[in-house]
Amino acid sequence: MSKPNGRVYVGQRTERHLGAVILYLIKETMSLRDAGGIGRFTQHFIREVLAIARAEVVARGGNALVVRSGPIAQWSACVK
User: Residue 27: which of 9, 46, 53, 8 has the closest Cα?
Assistant: First the structure.
């Protein structure tokens, strides 16, 4: 049985795998002070990356972003 843990559902089956989500993103700033410091800059960038990854999944017709942990985390789009 699945057990919700926030927005994470453990034990769900994947109906169809839509492939890995591969993104290469670079964000630059001229002044970290204007961006609110390194912590705020990094947090904002990670939020943007996750939003872009979710949009990629929806564009492929998926409804879930599955993360497989390992030496390198791999994000995959799938339909649940």
Answer: 46
Q: Residue with structure tokens 């996750």?
A: 50
Output the six-digit token pair for 12. 């769900």
d(CA 52, CA 25): 10
**What are the pLDDT digits (tens) for 1-37?**
444 444 666 777 778 888 888 888 888 888 888 878 8
Q: Which residues constitute the domain of residue 47?
A: 3-79
- State the Cα–Cα distance between residues 18 and 32, nearest whole angstrom: 37
Apex 65 CA angle, 60 and 69, nearest 5 = 135
Q: What domain count does the chain have?
A: 1
